[in-house]
Write a structure and sequence with these properties.
Distance between the termini of chain B: 27 Å
Number of strands of chain A: 24
Strand order of the largest sheet of chain B: 1-3-2
Shape of chain B: elongated
Number of strands of chain B: 3
Structural class of chain A: alpha/beta
Oligomer: heterodimer
Number of helices of chain B: 4
Amino acid sequence: MDRNAYLNRLSSNLARWVPEQERRDILRWYEEYFNDAGPERERDVINELGDPAALAWRLAVERGYVEGDNEPRRGPKLWQIITGAAIVVALSIPIMLFTQLATARSILGNAVTHAQTEVVARQTEPPLIGQTVFEENLPDSGVYAELEPFTVIDVGIPLGDVTVVADVNDPYSVGVFGDYYVAGRRYELTWSMENGRLRVWGNSEKQSSSADTDSHGVQVVITVPEGETLEQIQVTTGLGDVNLVNVVANEITVETGGGDVVSSWAYAWKKLCLTSRLGDVTLEGALAEKTEVTSGLGNVTVYAACAEDDCAYDLSTGLGDVWVNDRYCGKNVEKKGNLPYELEATSGLGDIYVGFDD
Amino acid sequence: MAFAMGTPLLDACVLAVLSRGDAYGYVLTQQVKARLDISESTLYPVLRRLERDGCLTVYDQSFQGRNRRYYAITDIGRTVLNKRRGEWAVFRDGLEELLKEDAHG
């Protein structure tokens, strides 16, 4: 995300809560802020400001447009951003893309239409079912629920952004927001919680009277208390971004048809598998015993929190370039060995960049 | 931080930084951030308010082909800052008196 993308995201998020004139004023300040810092510090500024949606929320709270948490903290928790009001973030998927849903679906095939995985149960409890609320023109339709601990996350949706985040102050929770129409068909997201297993999936068979293609922002946000290790995290979305932050599991598998995947200090003990067909994949943090990062058209970036000597890797791209620690390595490079970490990165058209700790 | 910073204190902080010299938003923010857990999102309305009240003025200066917006304290701003400094001294002394660790207090 560069400066302009950041400001656009900030703007679209502010639009939900803050009147236009003040919004312009705020944006001007942040433009100035970026200008002042200069292009060489653009990345620092983005890191400093943090998630644009969170910043927009903070600004709205500080100005009294929404009721915030009185507790002083660094930033709002994700679910507060979302439950407090609507998700405009998800609208960052341009609406025109929705017409391409069919394409994305055919790319992913069954993975999308029937993306539901069976997983191991831990507890026996009656199922708890939550469903998105539908009201036309109400962008903040959705449900949020705090849950009993779960050990498996299984998300398989045809469209929407998915965020899985662990934080000290977070409960076990799920939020499912938004609904959308594609070619006269109404889609909805549903979740269930049963036997320690949280599932989110999309129903697509409902017929809508109108033939409009429209979206009210589709977003799934799951939170886990920091320090808990889950059995498995499995996320599949046909079209949308996937963000993993800080979560820990034995196995993590993420796949999106069109969208970016970002894993920021998420950790898998055994296997970490991140795939985007059309977008970029970025992984920052510790590697799993076996890590696979794959992009069809986009770039693959890995900032591995281990020394190069501890990692066996196999990196290859069809048309792009491969870089390891700023060394140019052509179209593919392989380093074998019986090492603690194994990294496999593949891109069809994009570049692969891997950086290791010194 | 457990203690909330009210408007008058925030105003005083910004004015105090500017009293040492004109600054642009980024540097101003960094200077305040270096000392206090206050974000740029809090400072921006403070600057707007101070500008509206005539406590500071704004001017643009080009720097390496781009415009930087500088903030400068005005005479009104200096008056307000001095007033706040006096009020703060009284407030601080009172607080310290109340909070001090003194078994015989």
